[in-house]
Amino acid sequence: MRKSYRIKKNTEFQEVFKHGKSFANRQFVVYVLEKENRKHFRIGLSVSKKLGNAVKRNQIKRYIRQVFLELKEDIPPGYDYIIIARKPAAEMNYHEVKKSLIHVLKIAHVLKKS
To answer: At what angle do helices 94-107 and 54-70 cross, to 10 degrees?
Structure first.
C-alpha cells in the first residue's frame, strides 16, 4: 500500500479521533472521518504492545493493510479510517481478520457492496 494511503501524523490521528465516528466489534474499533475532495481513502493503524511482540503486531498490521487493498474498489474515496486492533485480533488468521473487518465496515455503512 502506497504512502499516500496512510495516515502517519499525530495531528491527523487526533483529528479523526475528535471529529470522526467510531464503530466497533470484538476485534477492531474503526474511526471514520469524511474528507472532501480526496481521490482515495487513507488508513491509520494502531496495534498496542499488549497484543504481542513486534512480529505479531506487524503481522496484524500487514493483514489489515491487505484487507483494505483487496477491498479497495468497495471502499468509497474521500474517507480517513483509523483501525485499532483489540486483544482477540492477536489470535486470528488472515481470513478471520478479513471477515471481522468486513463486518465492522458494514456496521459503519462504508462498503459499497455487500
So the answer is: 60
- Per-residue cell: 102: 468486513
- What domains are defined for the chain? 3-107 (3.30.230.10)
Grid cell locating 41: 481513502
Residues 6 or more apart in contact with residue 15 via CB below 8 angstroms: 33, 80
Q: Name the pTM for this structure.
A: 0.91
* Whether the Cβ atoms of residue 44 and residue 80 lie closer than 8 Å to each other: yes
Backbone φ/ψ region at 86: left (φ over 0), alpha (ψ -120 to 50), beta: beta
Phi and psi at residue 44, to the nearest 5° = -125, 140
Write out pLDDT tens, residues 8-59.
999 999 999 999 999 999 999 999 999 888 888 999 999 999 999 999 999 9
